[in-house]
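Structure in, sequence out. Go:
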């Protein structure tokens, strides 16, 4: 890929210096951002956050356009075209990929919560057709 990579972490216990140093050998344009330096961790709770760090990662990023990926996700081809060629991203400024839509034991409760969040909101066609929105979990 020709896109730069910014790896975000929350303190050395999340991603220690040795692993950051090893990762820089993967490609030419890799940088690291410690969120605990940017945000007050006593208020944000980033060190315990896991996936909850994602909005903070986007806010603190040095880039105007961000591809936020889980640590266990990857592209099958270089994502260089994503910002220019995907209509949903061009139309709304956001694009969400399908992740595991597991119930975590909650089942219908997740859908009740989701419907309440989206009540009285105009959904993009993409979001309206999403698997979670249509209650097709685990697919």
């Amino acid at each position: 890929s020709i896109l730069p990579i910014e790896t975000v972490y929350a303190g050395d216990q999340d991603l220690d210096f040795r692993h950051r140093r090893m990762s820089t050998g993967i490609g030419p344009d890799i940088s690291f951002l410690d969120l605990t330096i940017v945000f007050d961790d006593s208020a944000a709770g980033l060190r315990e956050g896991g996936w909850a760090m994602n909005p903070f990662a986007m806010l603190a990023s040095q880039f105007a356009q961000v591809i936020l990926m889980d640590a266990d996700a990857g592209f099958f081809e270089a994502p260089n075209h994503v910002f220019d060629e995907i209509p949903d991203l061009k139309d709304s400024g956001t694009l969400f990929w399908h992740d595991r839509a597991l119930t975590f034991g909650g089942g219908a409760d997740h859908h009740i919560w989701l419907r309440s969040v989206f009540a009285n909101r105009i959904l993009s066609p993409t979001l309206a057709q999403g698997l979670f929105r249509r209650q097709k979990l685990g697919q």
